[in-house]
Amino acid sequence: MKRAQASDKSFRRVTPHDLRHTAASLAISAGANVKVVQRMLGHKSAKVTLDTYAALFPDDLDNVVEALSKQRAEQL
User: Cα dihedral sign for 36, 21, 43, 34?
Assistant: First the structure.
């Protein structure tokens, strides 16, 4: 990445914190248990983890509504 940054000044600098944030975001988006992600990140509470990462994926609410609707339709 250092070479890419050196050759192209528009290439965004990526920090270890950026990579950590990306890993946590992807884990939550993939359905990982929030308590596991909390421990992985060293957060004192799951609330901190959820407050930081859960809002990053607004489409998730649509997916939940769709899944619940589908489940309800199958039950009728």
Answer: negative
